[in-house]
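Researcher: Next sequence.
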Amino acid sequence: MTTCSRTTVASWGRQPTAKDLLHFIRASVASIRKEVATDLRADGKAIERRLSSLLRHALDTGSPFEIALVLGSAAELMSFPEQEVLEQCTAVVQKANQQALRGLVWAVRHRSIRGGQYVRRFAVDAP
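Model: Next structure:
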């Protein structure tokens, strides 16, 4: 996982605000860009591969905070998970009943829909 996402809501001690999430997302995006800069495949899919790996980890741990963080990072990078995965992420985050996280996922879904058929999509790695 990226450096900034090692902070979990439980260890942080409070619910994240929208401002907190924006800070974490920006740090995550910077970290992802730095990590993929060394990808030797040069096929233009390094960001999608990294997002896929991060989202798989977040789903495996079941952390609404990490899921929202990865989705927000992906949206900032104008790449979105496939619709079925986005639905799965939405369900996990809604169960957490944290307003800022739900709002973030809503914004990602809205941006994904507005992008139409031309947005970049990525699949999530198999466990």
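Model: Residues 18-36 form the longest helix (19 residues). The CA atoms of residues 8 and 127 lie 22 Å apart.
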